[in-house]
Specification:
The chain is 42% helix and 13% strand. It is an alpha+beta fold. Belongs to the choline/ethanolamine kinase family.
Length: 286
């Protein structure tokens, strides 16, 4: 299947060479139209580092931190007092509240992480909720947490997702969004699909500081190294595993990387995990 894809990819690249002049003209025309709209005030400028840095909820604000960690495998009755202790440690205004004022419940949607809704009844009687995100086991192997936290700050300033409120040993706390997590069936809804596409386009326009090198190939080779050095206790699984030609897999990855380098496509900040459980929608959209 991958061989067929590579062959198709080569044909596309050859076809692209003959169309580059036309594409450049189209891009130039599009940029001219875009420039004209900006001058007329019809298009808002794409977020840049300076705008985001000056935003009140961005990276210049010192967020609370804690060295505490919480085991995500624990059942809810055991995890509740730990989350309560964590919230009191992170947020000074909650530090003296009685434990009975806190409630914790699970939130649907998380795939690699455990999501919890923690609610505190403050002295004035108001219920304030936050989302506590506990990282899944071994996820640090594939996710750069420092980079993730930086991205969340900038995306939040650009109007995407929840605000980052605090970080702790194996997770983060964000503002709670009162919306519904989508299910696979929702992805067939044309109205929702159009809304997702519009937001994704806007998402790709957000400027995140840092390297513009594609992360895809770094992750691909990382997965390859992990996959090519596995061992199974089950003899049948090990026997099947030994039939895989990892040298062939490696060569195909290298070839695919070389072929895609001819696309001259811009490198943008991408979601890369756009499944239903990672999308929330409010009642107006649904």
């Amino acid at each position: 299947m991958l061989g067929f894809f590579l062959k198709t990819l080569r044909l596309k690249i050859e076809a692209k060479k003959g169309k580059r002049k036309k594409i450049k003209k189209k891009i130039q025309k599009r940029e001219e139209e875009k420039s004209l709209k900006v001058k007329m005030g019809a298009v808002k400028n794409i977020w840049n580092e300076r705008e985001v840095a000056e935003a009140p909820d961005c990276s210049q604000i010192q967020i609370p931190t804690s060295s505490l960690s919480v085991d995500p495998s624990l059942p809810l009755p055991q995890i509740t007092p730990l989350i309560t202790e964590l919230c009191k440690d992170l947020f000074e205004k909650w530090s003296n509240l009685d434990d009975s004022r806190f409630s914790v419940e699970t939130v649907s949607g998380g795939i690699t992480n455990l999501l919890l809704k923690a609610t505190a009844k403050e002295e004035g009687g108001n219920d304030v909720s936050v989302t506590v995100r506990l990282y899944g086991p071994n996820t640090d192997y594939v996710i750069n947490r420092e980079r993730e936290l930086q991205a969340i700050k900038y995306l939040s300033a650009a109007g995407f997702g929840a605000n980052l409120l605090a970080v702790f040993g194996n997770g983060m706390v964000q503002s709670f969004i009162n919306a519904r997590t989508l299910v696979p069936l929702d992805m067939r809804n044309p109205k929702l699909a159009a809304e997702i596409a519009r937001e994704l386009r806007r998402f790709h326009q957000v400027e995140i500081p840092g390297s513009k090198e594609p992360q895809l190939w770094i992750d691909m080779f990382k997965f390859y190294e992990k996959a090519s050095s596995l061992e199974f206790d089950d003899s049948e699984k090990q026997k099947i595993y030994k039939t895989i030609s990892f040298s062939e897999v490696y060569n195909e990855i290298v070839e695919l990387k070389e072929l895609t380098s001819h696309f001259n496509a811009p490198v943008v900040f991408s979601h890369n995990d756009l499944l239903s459980g990672n999308i929330m929608a409010n009642d107006e959209i649904v």
